[in-house]
Amino acid sequence: MQPIDKINNDWILQFKKPLIIAGPCSAETQEQVLETASKLSKASIPVFRAGIWKPRTKPGNFEGIGEIGLKWLQKVKEETGMLIATEVANATHVKYAIAYNIDILWIGARSTVNPFSVQEIAESLKDTDKIILIKNPIHPDFDLLKGAIERLIAQGIKNIGVIHRGFSAYKNAPYRNSPNWRMALDFIIRFPNIPILFDPSHICGQRKGISKIAQQALNCALSGLMIETHCSPDKAWSDAKQQITPEKLLEILKCIEFRNKNTRQKLEVLLLQIDEQDHHILSLLSERFKLSTIFGKLKKNYNLPIVQHNRWEQIIDELKPYIKQLDI
Ligand code: PEP
Ligand code: MN
């Protein structure tokens, strides 16, 4: 198997920088697909995305339109000349995507997390020269992402890229899926040969903030963006809150700067990491205040003293070695 840092990833060079992939979360109707694509193509977006099979958190939500949507994607290609991209989560999806000449296949975050799924997809794509993008797994496990890439390489797949779409967080997070700038930068440093794109839509989970974080990603030397775009976002059947119109996308792209060689990349990543930690500290403090308020009320009910000296000393004793270990 070719080592992961040796694979040659020239596929990105066929696109103007930064590479922009746009289109709806899901293909819903032929009209919605064609109208969105026609507007994006007029804005010179090179790749149209649309989910055909949707991994939904809860049962009962729209789970994708299925095979008929692939026909609509083919129409997009015929009518606009855009490349077409969709998510695959198993060998059957791959079979259909190949049969309908989909150009770019991506593995979603909920599949990357499962080595069985990645292996099945990789084997069904054996020796393909299509572009295969891998979204990060839902938790920041660098080796799991690397392992997924290695599974593709082992099957002779050459044109590989990664999409940073953030990581699940429990409550109080400012993002739907928090970005991890350190991990993105580590990836660029270790595998400069593998293009890494950024998905501000699934990170923000809402329209607000997309443009700011997209610019931050490009400042950190990521190679492009995948942005969910819908002709009537409020009426979307999935991820309605985070989708933007093609007009809005164009507005964002007009303001975005892309510097080819970013000498300030390290500084940008450090600043973003500091912001990220500030968010964590604030959310932890808020959780702690809530817990101590409940605790204070219980103490009052049980007539316990406000300060319990034993507990105070015990906490300090327990924390001392921990603080030492943190090396502050
Ligand atoms: C998507 O791109 O619509 C999607 C389901 O994304 P993710 O795999 O990042 O959740
Ligand atoms: Mn989506």
Automatic annotation (TrEMBL):
<dbReference type="InterPro" id="IPR013785">
    <property type="entry name" value="Aldolase_TIM"/>
</dbReference>
<dbReference type="Pfam" id="PF00793">
    <property type="entry name" value="DAHP_synth_1"/>
</dbReference>
<dbReference type="InterPro" id="IPR052899">
    <property type="entry name" value="Class-I_DAHP_synthase"/>
</dbReference>
<dbReference type="GO" id="GO:0004106">
    <property type="term" value="F:chorismate mutase activity"/>
</dbReference>
<dbReference type="GO" id="GO:0016740">
    <property type="term" value="F:transferase activity"/>
</dbReference>
<dbReference type="InterPro" id="IPR036979">
    <property type="entry name" value="CM_dom_sf"/>
</dbReference>
<dbReference type="InterPro" id="IPR036263">
    <property type="entry name" value="Chorismate_II_sf"/>
</dbReference>
<keyword id="KW-0808">Transferase</keyword>
<dbReference type="InterPro" id="IPR002701">
    <property type="entry name" value="CM_II_prokaryot"/>
</dbReference>
<dbReference type="Pfam" id="PF01817">
    <property type="entry name" value="CM_2"/>
</dbReference>
<dbReference type="InterPro" id="IPR006218">
    <property type="entry name" value="DAHP1/KDSA"/>
</dbReference>
<protein>
    <recommendedName>
        <fullName>chorismate mutase</fullName>
        <ecNumber>5.4.99.5</ecNumber>
    </recommendedName>
</protein>
<dbReference type="GO" id="GO:0046417">
    <property type="term" value="P:chorismate metabolic process"/>
</dbReference>
<feature type="domain" description="Chorismate mutase">
    <location>
        <begin position="261"/>
        <end position="328"/>
    </location>
</feature>
